[in-house]
Design a protein that fits this description.
12 strands; binds protoporphyrin IX containing FE; Cytochrome p450
């Protein structure tokens, strides 16, 4: 458990800059492609100019000074000859074991300190074999998101989730297998498919809110998880409301809740570390998986025989009917891996993002009041609509508290990251947390200021809570829909206050970053 880097560090510039310097950098960004045309077109150079389309709201950004840009930095695949001319990234000077321990338990302090001392590209040892080199420059991020899949496969193929989800799920597979699974799943997560879930999400949220006690302290995280688990199970299995008692769906829901709760035990953190690089689950993890597998296979068997399979729109039925271009169907093991992937990837993340939203709002009276006013009256303090204010609040929460703080790719060819060269076979990690706290891109980066986003869409390479490229989160549209509906319902119906004035610290659980006390609030009134 650790403190967030803003505690005591608010307003500071990462490296050696000052606000004046930041302004200078922004001027430089716009002038560089003209001054150095060769750099802008070189294959290893990528620009970080914002897409002008992103800047267009109905009237453009209302607070243009609250989002800037990073200076350009060349990045991407390079020839061996160029690699030989470049320096290697500076190392964190700590024993491997100490690095692994600090990264796993104190990732935030660890990466902010390393960036302060070593710059925006540095190398750590331990945790992942062969690296990782950690970067926080949007141009470097762009080079990895746009890379050919075979040049920079995702590190999720090596994640501790692999023994649980198997090597073939959309999250853990790499190469052609990954593309095949992604194509099969994509239609179920498309914006139009998600639109049909909105009513169901709203019903799940209202049901939960109805139960909450006024005048008492509650931890929001488990409550948010109850909503998002209902939503994902309804979406996957096509069940309205909670699964009926005695059904395999209900047994599955119970097993998942128990397994997620157990993942907070200290032993689970250890189990997770022990599984890095393993193919098969062992010990406690194996027991938890068996508990989940039995009802999962039962659900699949039942559904295969369902008479109305063709008419059903849920994800499991869609997957049972799906065929690859070669006409192949998915077998039970493949279906189990995908279903479990979606349940695990899809509910805790969204629940924690919502929990962080309220943790932040209840400590920031102005944005909180602005959200409540916009939702209850339909217009906000800056003349924005309720939808714009809700969107801005979610966007800023996901910038300020990204629930997945780091993602990675393993480069197969020499790579350039600014002034540094990276050997083939090295893992490159993109610290979402560090990208989102660049002073040049987000002036006053530690402050929670949803108004940054009024009239402005987030950038593709400097707002990356869902990752990007061909590995971008498959459930992003669903996660955004859930957050919009639940945040709106809560702002409309509840007067919430923090149980304590001090911000909640961040804790790492599995691959996520969550509020350490579960986002505790007191419900002062219900409407
Ligand atoms: C706020 C909520 C969520 C956050 C912050 C989040 C974040 C992420 C991130 C950072 C990645 C890795 C992207 C990369 O490496 O470039 C990812 C991948 C993925 N997410 Fe999410 N996620 C969320 C919700 C969901 C939901 C609701 C689902 C599904 C129901 C989902 C399913 C997946 C899947 C299947 C992948 C793997 C995609 C691939 O490798 O092709 N996520 N997510």
């Amino acid at each position: 458990m650790i403190g967030f880097a803003d505690q005591g560090g608010a307003g500071k510039v990462d490296r050696d800059g000052t606000r004046g310097c930041v302004r200078w950098l922004r001027l430089t960004v716009t002038s560089i492609p003209v001054a150095f045309p060769a750099m802008a077109t070189s294959p290893s150079a990528v620009e970080n100019r914002r897409d002008p389309e992103d800047e267009k709201g109905p009237e453009g950004p209302r607070f243009p000074e609250l989002v800037g840009a990073a200076p350009p930095s060349p990045a991407g695949p390079i020839e061996e000859a160029e690699l030989a001319t470049l320096a290697t990234a500076p190392d964190i000077r700590l024993p491997k074991l100490a690095q692994t321990a600090r990264f796993s338990v104190r990732q935030i302090e660890f990466v902010f300190k390393a960036r302060r001392e070593l710059g925006e590209v540095f190398r750590m040892r331990g945790v992942i074999p062969g690296g990782p080199v950690i970067t926080s420059h949007p141009d470097h991020v762009k080079s990895l998101f746009m890379a050919k899949p075979e040049q920079a496969p995702s590190l999720t193929g090596e994640s501790p989730l692999r023994p649980i989800l198997g090597p073939n799920s959309v999250l853990t597979a790499v190469g052609p297998r990954h593309l095949r699974q992604r194509r099969l799943l994509l239609p179920a997560f498309h914006g139009e498919a998600i639109a049909q879930y909105v009513e169901m999400i709203s019903a799940a949220a209202e049901r939960e809110i109805d139960r909450w006690p006024v005048g008492e302290t509650i931890a929001l995280a488990p409550r948010m998880q109850a909503i998002t688990l209902d939503v994902i199970m309804a979406g996957i299995f096509g069940i309205e409301g909670r699964p009926a008692p005695g059904t395999p769906e209900e047994a599955l829901r119970t097993a998942i809740r128990k397994a997620v709760a157990a993942s907070t035990w200290p032993t689970s953190q250890l189990t997770e570390l022990l599984h890095v690089g393993r193919e098969e689950p062992m010990g406690l993890m194996k027991m938890a998986i068996d508990m989940i597998d039995r009802p999962t296979y039962a659900v699949i068997r039942d559904r295969r025989c369902a008479a109305d399979l063709e008419e059903r729109h849920d994800i499991l039925s869609t997957l049972l009917l799906a065929r690859t271009e070669e006409g192949e169907a998915m077998d039970d093991k493949e279906l189990r891996d995908e279903l479990l992937t979606l349940v695990l990837a899809g509910h805790e993340t969204t629940a924690n993002s919502l929990s962080w939203a309220w943790e932040r709002l209840t400590r920031n009276p102005e944005p909180h009041a602005a959200l409540v006013e916009a939702v209850r009256r339909g217009t906000g303090v800056a003349g924005e609509t309720a939808e714009e204010r809700v969107e801005a609040t979610i966007t800023e929460t996901m910038r300020n508290r990204p629930v997945i703080p780091i993602i990675g790719r393993r480069v197969q060819v020499p790579w350039r990251l600014g002034d540094y060269g990276v050997e083939p076979g090295t893992a490159i990690a993109m610290s979402i947390l560090l990208v989102h706290h660049r002073e040049d891109v987000y002036p006053d980066p530690f402050a929670f200021r949803p108004e940054r986003w009024l009239g402005r869409k987030p950038g593709t390479y400097d707002w990356i809570p869902f990752g990007g490229g061909i590995r971008r989160c498959l459930g992003a549209a669903l996660a955004m829909a859930e957050q919009r509906v639940v945040l709106t319902a809560m702002a409309r119906r509840l007067d919430l206050v923090a149980d304590r004035p001090a911000p909640e610290r961040a804790m790492h659980r599995n691959v996520t970053m969550i509020p350490a006390r579960g986002a505790r609030v007191v419900i002062a009134a219900k409407h």
